[in-house]
């Protein structure tokens, strides 16, 4: 029972983890992206369609990455180079994602593919209980955990990471130190959007695996909230994503076991939790120093007169 | 001798403003070159061009005889130019170490903290600076933050250092230390461009002075060929400066009494700790201190923007500490806020409307549910005449006025309510000499009519000239109250850095 729940937790948490990591990279550069939901859908549909036609899951994932990157580039261009309103641009990106995937996704509904298989890690997967639950997953799960470590090292140990964090905190300071603010911001949006796309592809290639309209079901929004919960930190994102994955897993389990609670109420759980998390996260923010990048959401114009 | 850096007829326009209009500037090796000019003369704009932040519309930057085009600050850094901006370019949540790293170009991709720290510590030791590399910037005093900015430049091996009003945020002692440091750099052959409008500093440091006016350079003078009067004359030009005199007065009644006031902390700012002082009727009480030591909190508590945690404020026997009893009395306390554009005016509205922001409910300005435009315009005409406000065409948004005129609008509005107390934060900050003197004159006139003023300022000369008493604040506490006639700048400086007088 615990083994199944733990397994389901990680599986449900992984798409959230990808999307949250993507959003963290973007927000660290100072760009808010409320289009994560849309990007996940673009990734999910592109990944599914390419995997279906080429019979290659790897190509599907790559396609998802680049398609979402292209969609995110619109947001990046508007926010970084045109200095547009990031909230409006992000919201329209989500609507764009929902719209375009339901339009082009019609023919893909009902098709099935063979999704990612479980790849047990030698030795570790033999450990009782957690072996099967933690060390016997598909490759994308391992990849997501590796990403957590890489992003952490990148942000705190590398020169580019220092530059990226500085750009998000005080772009003028970075600029006068010779850092190309726009380039960092635009690249962050591209890579972050691509990661959100992989999060979407995880849904259609590993989690379910098939395509239905609007299949991300608000996970993109949860990811945006998780960034705050994670305090813009990749290792905390892992904990946050699995926490939500866990709630989802428990909720599904309870439905399957046939409790007297209405399934609609159970399905609400992750979203209710999002609200609670946000309330607590903001309460904590007001008290001490904030981990939020200071220039988050503020366009940078070098010639702006202060 | 050829100049190492030459700025040749640089023009820079912003929408609606010609900020630089053919400026020329020659910087020689191993000199301290002062840029002098009123606000809006284009000093900061010119430096931002030199820093690569603004790209000029036309004109040349020539270094060692070859022309340069700065597309970004990176190009300027490569050319050996470094700048300490008026608003520091620091990442406040990062540590000192991380901020310094940001400025260093040649570090490996994955860097070793240990080795880099050693390198930085060596440089810091060479210049006798004490700073903890692991402290986040926001915990440092403003003086220390400035050292971090300087270390950044030194690590980069800049040949030309630009300092934009570096002493505005320092105590006199800290400023002296900075000057010694700058002289040391000069003797090492570095060139320093120094921006200030404090005459004393200009006289002490400058080897050469260039005077800017309305975006062009009017004169270059060498040490020995200028004194304070010559410089002031060249700077101000034809604008006449209002004159005023301080009359002797005795004060017998107390109008506002503050007892053991405590207030909460805002980010990066000191709270008020056991703050007690009596304001006497008709006096000007100066508050000295480095910005960020609780002055803003004090003003906000007095003007009702913030509630104190503990303590008591009374006026004429009425307790006005708490919100309820406060509202009616707050009206008698006028407020000239620190950030005049953000807090003092409604920037998009006209001068007429801004002048009645506090009294729009007055019957005089109403006609049933509508505004009485006629009365509002009449009121504006009176105030504009009385305070000599230069406004644009009718209905011009107030944000388009010059800083001095915006300040006049605010003061006109505040004083038109006939307050008994005026709380003024940095009322002349960033104003040209003419406007600053005008503000002084208005405050003095109000003193004649027995209005009391709490004058919060970082300009010691201003405080010494205007105040009847000066209270010095450090980290939210009063470290001493001095008589401007008997005290010295050094004495105030000690109090500003938290020391007590024997």
Keywords:
heterodimer, A: 306 residues, mainly alpha, ABC transporter involved in vitamin B12 uptake, BtuC, two-stranded antiparallel ribbon, 12 helices, 71% helix, globular, B: 502 residues, alpha/beta, Rossmann fold, 3 domains, 6-stranded mixed beta sheet, 17 helices
Looking at the structure, the CATH topology of chain A is ABC transporter involved in vitamin B12 uptake, BtuC
CATH architecture of the largest domain in chain B: 3-Layer(aba) Sandwich
How much helix is in the residues of chain B?
25-40%
Major sheet attributes of chain A: 2 strands, antiparallel
**Number of contiguous helices of chain A:** 12
SSE arrangement of chain A, N to C: HHHHEHEHHHHHHH
Content of β-strand of chain B? 15-25%
Helix content of chain A: over 70%
The figure for the number of domains of chain B is: 3
Q: Tell me the total number of β-strands of chain B.
A: 22
Q: How far from one another are the termini of chain B?
A: 52 Å
Number of domains of chain A: 1
| N- and C-termini, Cα separation of chain A | 61 Å
Count of beta strands of chain A:
2
> What structural class do you assign from the helix and strand content of chain B?
alpha/beta
Oligomer category: heterodimer
User: Can you tell me the CATH class of chain A?
Assistant: Mainly Alpha
Q: Determine the number of helices of chain B (DSSP H or I, runs of at least 4 residues).
A: 17
């Amino acid at each position: 029972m615990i083994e199944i729940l733990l397994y389901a937790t990680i599986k449900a948490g992984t798409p959230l983890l990808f999307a949250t990591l993507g959003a963290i990279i973007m927000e660290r550069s100072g760009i808010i992206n409320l289009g994560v939901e849309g990007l996940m859908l673009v990734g999910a549909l592109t990944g599914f369609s390419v995997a279906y036609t080429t019979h290659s899951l790897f190509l599907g994932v790559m396609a998802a990455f680049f398609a979402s990157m292209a969609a995110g580039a619109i947001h990046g261009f508007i926010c970084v180079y045109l200095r547009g309103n990031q909230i409006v641009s992000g919201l329209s990106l989500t609507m764009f994602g929902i719209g375009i995937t339901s339009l082009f996704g019609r023919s893909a509904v009902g098709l099935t593919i063979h999704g990612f298989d479980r790849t047990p890690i030698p030795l570790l997967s033999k450990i009782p209980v957690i072996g099967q639950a933690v060390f016997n997953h598909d490759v994308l799960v391992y990849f997501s955990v590796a990403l957590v470590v890489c992003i952490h090292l990148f942000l705190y140990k590398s020169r580019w990471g220092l530059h990226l964090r500085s750009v998000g905190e005080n772009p003028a300071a970075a600029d006068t130190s010779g850092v190309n603010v726009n380039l960092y911001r635009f690249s962050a949006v591209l890579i972050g959007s691509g990661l959100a796309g992989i999060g979407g592809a995880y849904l259609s290639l590993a989690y379910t695996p098939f395509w239905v309209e609007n299949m991300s079901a608000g996970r993109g929004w949860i990811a945006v909230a998780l960034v705050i919960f994670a305090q813009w930190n990749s290792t905390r994102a892992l904990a946050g994503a699995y926490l939500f994955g866990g709630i989802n897993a428990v909720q599904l389990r309870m439905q399957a076991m046939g409790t007297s609670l209405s399934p609609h109420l159970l399905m609400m759980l992750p979203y209710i939790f999002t609200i609670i998390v946000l309330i607590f996260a903001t309460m904590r923010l007001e008290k001490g120093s904030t981990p939020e990048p200071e220039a988050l959401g503020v366009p940078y114009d070098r010639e702006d007169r202060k | 001798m050829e100049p190492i850096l030459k700025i040749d007829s640089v023009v820079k326009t912003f929408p609606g403003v010609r900020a630089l209009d053919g400026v020329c500037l020659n910087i020689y090796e191993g000199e301290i070159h002062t840029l002098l000019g009123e606000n809006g003369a284009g000093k900061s704009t010119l430096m931002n061009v030199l820093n690569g932040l603004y790209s000029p519309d036309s004109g040349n930057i020539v270094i060692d005889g070859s022309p340069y085009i700065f597309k970004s600050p990176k190009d300027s850094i490569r050319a050996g130019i470094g700048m300490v901006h008026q608003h520091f370019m620091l990442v406040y949540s990062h540590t000192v170490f991380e901020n310094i790293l940001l400025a260093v170009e040649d570090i490996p991709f994955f860097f070793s903290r240990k080795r880099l720290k050693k390198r930085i510590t060596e440089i810091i030791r060479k210049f006798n600076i004490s700073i903890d590399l692991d402290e986040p910037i926001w915990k440092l005093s403003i003086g220390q933050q400035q050292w971090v900015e300087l270390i950044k430049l030194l690590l980069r091996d800049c040949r030309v250092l630009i300092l934009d009003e570096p002493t505005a945020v320092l105590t006199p002692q800290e400023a002296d230390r900075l000057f010694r440091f700058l002289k040391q750099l000069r003797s090492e052959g570095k060139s320093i461009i120094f921006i200030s409008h404090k005459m004393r500093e200009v006289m002490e440091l400058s080897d050469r002075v260039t005077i800017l006016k309305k975006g062009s350079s009017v004169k270059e003078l060498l040490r020995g060929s200028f004194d304070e009067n010559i410089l002031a004359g060249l700077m101000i030009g034809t604008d006449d400066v209002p004159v005023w005199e301080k009359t002797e007065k005795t004060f017998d009644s107390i109008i506002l009494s503050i007892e053991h006031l405590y207030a909460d902390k805002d980010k990066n700012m000191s709270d008020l700790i056991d703050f007690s002082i009596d304001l006497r009727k008709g006096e000007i009480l100066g508050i000295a201190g480095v910005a960020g030591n609780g002055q803003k909190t004090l003003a906000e508590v007095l003007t009702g923007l913030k509630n104190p945690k503990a303590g008591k404020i009374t006026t004429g026997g009425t307790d006005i500490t708490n919100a309820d009893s406060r509202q009616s009395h707050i009206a008698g306390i006028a407020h000239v806020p620190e950030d005049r554009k953000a807090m003092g005016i409604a920037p998009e509205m006209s001068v007429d409307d801004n002048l009645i922001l506090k009294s729009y409910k007055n019957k005089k300005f109403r006609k049933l549910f509508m505004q009485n435009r006629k009365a509002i315009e009449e009121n504006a005409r009176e105030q504009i005449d009385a305070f000599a406000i230069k406004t644009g065409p009718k209905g011009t948004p107030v944000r388009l006025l010059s800083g001095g005129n915006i300040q006049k609008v605010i003061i006109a509005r505040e004083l038109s309510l006939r307050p008994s107390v005026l709380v003024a934060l940095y009322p002349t900050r960033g104003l040209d000499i003419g406007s600053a003197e005008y503000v002084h004159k208005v405050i003095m006139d109000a003193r004649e009519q027995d209005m009391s003023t709490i004058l919060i300022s970082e300009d010691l000369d201003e405080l010494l000239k205007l105040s009847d008493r000066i209270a010095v604040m450090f980290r939210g506490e009063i470290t001493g109250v001095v008589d401007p006639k008997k005290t010295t700048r050094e004495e105030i400086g000690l109090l500003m850095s938290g020391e007590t007088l024997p």
